Write a sequence for this structure.
């Protein structure tokens, strides 16, 4: 098939450090190309892909000089994608709702994977205004937030498992890895580790709008001798950290749409301690690949409980449920379905016209 993949422009594909959506797009493109599909990736010019790259900007917006209006290049990219719509059998976007107005006149069917939370004002109502767009959710939890939308399927993220080395032994310390934001609750991770008496390595990036939270809730806690803050890490450093940990602490305080770091940890053999919010119960098997716990005291108790879990079971769980091949299989089925539906609709319009 001829597939257009449309990526956000903030980060390159794949990202050098943080960037779950861009990593998923990269893995999907590589898998589709390896299966013989003709893939065109619309992304920043500093992206690295086996697909045909259509650069929308020379560099990712986070890597270049600030521009007064970062929305303009995103809209320009979508205008170019849909100008070329007849070149594709399906257009797959990962750019939130930017493609929606273009989809009504598109010569190719449009599939949009929604990567963020949907339980925000006006969002669910907006999704229902564009029935022309086929939507993919990244978890059943996310899909349940907008039951009236035009869902094509739920597709869990997948990893290129060859990139993740299994660590049979693990280690004693805990890891928090992700955005240092209120909803990810790194301050809770620190409190859990300190009360459990176990070292914690905190890794991640502070976004500008979250700097106040970081300074107020996280920085004062970094002075504790059990806590080590290492900032944002690249892939190799991140995987080494996960592989050598006792557990990943994931004390989220929001309806997490998926949580890619959970399957990254389990791919390394490291169990997950998480609050049972959002997609966490879909991703973590309680008592097998991690512990789901709600209260602070339960999370502290889980730090001891995870020591008895089989790290090989964590790896098997990802191999069986969250591989990039499983993700690509699911998207291939959706592509064929929406493309067939578009052809049928076109045939019906032709017959009515004649």
């Amino acid at each position: 098939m001829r597939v257009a993949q449309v990526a956000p422009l903030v980060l390159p594909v794949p990202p050098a450090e943080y960037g779950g959506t861009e990593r998923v797009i990269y893995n999907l493109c590589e898998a589709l190309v390896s299966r013989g599909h003709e893939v065109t990736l619309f992304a920043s010019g500093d992206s690295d892909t086996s697909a045909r790259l259509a650069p929308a900007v020379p560099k990712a917006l986070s890597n270049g000089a600030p521009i007064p209006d970062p929305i303009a290049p995103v809209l320009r990219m979508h205008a170019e994608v849909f100008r070329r719509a007849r070149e594709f059998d399906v257009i797959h976007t990962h750019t939130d709702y930017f493609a929606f107005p273009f989809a009504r006149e598109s010569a190719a069917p449009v599939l949009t994977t929604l990567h963020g939370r949907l339980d925000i004002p006006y969002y669910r109502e907006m999704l229902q205004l564009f029935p022309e767009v086929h939507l993919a959710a990244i978890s059943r939890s996310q899909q349940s937030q907008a039951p009236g939308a035009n869902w094509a399927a739920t597709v869990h993220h997948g990893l290129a498992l060859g990139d993740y080395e299994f660590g049979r032994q693990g280690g004693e310390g805990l890891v928090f890895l992700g955005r240092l934001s209120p909803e990810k609750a790194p301050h809770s991770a620190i409190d859990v580790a300190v009360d459990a008496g176990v070292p914690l390595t905190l890794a991640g990036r502070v976004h500008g709008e979250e700097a106040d939270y970081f300074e107020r809730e996280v920085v004062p806690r970094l002075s504790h001798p059990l806590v080590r803050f290492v900032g944002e890490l690249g892939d190799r450093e991140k995987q080494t950290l996960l592989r050598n940990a006792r557990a990943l602490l994931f004390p989220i305080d929001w309806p997490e749409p998926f949580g890619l770091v959970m399957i990254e940890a389990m791919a390394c053999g490291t169990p997950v301690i998480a609050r049972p919010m959002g997609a966490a119960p879909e991703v973590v098997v309680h008592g097998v690949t991690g512990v789901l716990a709600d209260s602070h005291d339960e999370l502290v108790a889980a730090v001891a409980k995870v020591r008895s879990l089989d790290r090989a079971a964590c790896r098997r769980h990802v191999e069986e449920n969250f591989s990039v091949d499983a993700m690509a299989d699911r998207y291939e089925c959706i592509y064929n379905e929406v493309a067939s539906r578009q052809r049928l609709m076109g045939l019906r319009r032709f017959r009515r016209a004649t």
About this structure: The two ends are 29 Å apart (CA to CA). DSSP finds 13 helices and 13 strands in the chain. Residues 164-319 form a domain with the Rossmann fold fold (CATH 3.40.50.2000). Residues 324-353 form the longest helix (30 residues).
